[in-house]
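Pilot study result, target chain (644 residues):
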Amino acid sequence: MTVWGKRAAFVNPTSTTHLSAQDIQAYRMQTLGDIAERVPNLSFTNTTPNNPVLMVRGLGGTEDEGPVLYTPVLIDGIPVPSFAMGQMFDFSNVDVMRGPQLTEGVNAFGGMVSAQSRDPGNRLGGALDFEYGTGNRKRATFSGDLPIDASTSLRLSVGGETADGYIHNRALDRRDTGGWHGWFGRIKLLHKDSAGGEWRFSLHHMLNHGGNDFFETPQHARNHVSYNTSEGVNDTEYLIGSAQYHRRFSQRLILDVTFGGASTDWRYSNPYSVFSANSGFTLPTRQIGGSVMLSGSSGTLDWKGGIYGQQAKRWAPYTFDMTPYYASRTTATLGTANVAFMGELGWHFAKSWRLVPSLRIEHVDSSLSNWTSSMSGDTPYAYSMQESLPRQTLSKTAPLPGLKVEYNPQPSGQLSQFGWLSYSRSFLPPNYSPYGSYSSTVSAPYASSYGNNLELGYRLGDLTGRWSVEATGFANFLSNLQVSATNGAGESLIGTAGTAHSRGVEATAHWKPLNTLQLNAFLGLTYAAYDRFVFGGSDYSGKQMAGTPRSNFGFSGEWHPVPGWAVNASVVRRGRTTLYPSSSIQNAPYILVDAQIEKRWKHWNVVLYGHNLTNSSYFTRGLSGGYVVAANPRQLGFRVGVNF
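Predicted structure:
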């Protein structure tokens, strides 16, 4: 039985992919985009390789257009926009949870990604790693554990990275216009008190500066060639503070408290030649919040309940300047405050059966302030227009019920099985479109999104851990689905699809035929489409949601032929899809092949790796004008590390 966090994986009644620190390192998953391409029914879009926005089962993608998170990303329990994640470092595990999560703290409409940093160890020690790879990519990291006393220890992780990137700009005769440089660090304190409580305090900081030479025609992008006249700007930063407390008062009462805040910044501008204009934005976000959760059991009943609250503010200025012909500048400040009460009650009404009703009551206050818009031009004639709005506010309260039936019989022989059937009501709060150019459209908020979600899952496994299989089917029926779109006046807005649906299957299998060989496989099938959606003079009804392949599947394996040696390989195929958000350009199906060979001595390790070995060419973003962003090409490299 595999255990993560404080719950047994085998009896977790939701479709989840668990990635350990060993998985992340063995398959070189260094960004959320790497994860999204290698787990079932998770996809992403990005304007730069380090800023992925996640989509689960077809749902998501609007994070850089509005403040709503379809799929929140948590670092030590604190939510951050996925586009702020950048490089991942020193995580003990990452869990990808698909489907709504009503009782996990923050509201999750499509799913949730939860990353936990490594806990400090109770022995003095450290590790130093250096990596070099394609694109003149250099990365160095240090991590160390410092015991302070028998119950308190500290962990420090720091690192830096620089790369030229994978773009050849022939107009500038440069190969570093898609490059980046930055550093990252984390300090974490773990204290176990005399009453049995566990205190965790962590501070995380990531700072990355880079170019933005990625938008090109499909022909040029496919070959990672650019003719842009400048490199553009892509700078990201986050600062996260987290405090967590866990205490088991008895076998029947557990307390979990999380509190913290995050400050994220994204400064982005395109090369002038992309639109023949200076265009870009700054996107600082500040948020603070936390949760208090109690859980326990008594006889045939068990329960979990608590409260979650968060306050966030985002500033969203945007500039599009093609002077003297046309110039547009907008400013906006978006504020949200939400509080949620949640609880579930489990009843073991028969020997192998459990009934779990749940309820989440979500209240959200949203505001738009400091909105201004100016449009002007001098050619062919001079004109100027300025608009502003007073503070706009709205509130929404939504009850979100859920119901699960679980089947968990006692193991029979060497077999263990678990099944579940669940219904949940999901909700995305209303808000305002910050990048609109006209007060008449910006002042009209987009509506709340709702989902009625069904999930049926089954797991079967060998008690010795030799093998396991899992399959999950889902169907989501959606109304007023929030979608990033462009209206007839050219405004970038959040529209709502009257009705939509998403349905499909996820399946995984693990087999260990030998003690030295582990084999894995996964399959994801998703059909996500708009049933009724007319926006900006275009009818999207019946069309598949952009950025979501109908199928993705893969195989991976880890082999230890002799002590000290490890070989990892994976093959993933992702199906055909149109590009997000509004491109008619299609991604053909593509295959990703990764491999890694590692040799370990007592204190040393050396790794040779290859990422996208077949050099598959595909795109991760598309504009209606025909420009696209290409994914990274083949990457080769080595890593040397020492433990002490």
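One observation from the pilot: The first strand starts at residue 3 and ends at 4. A full batch analysis is planned for the follow-on phase.
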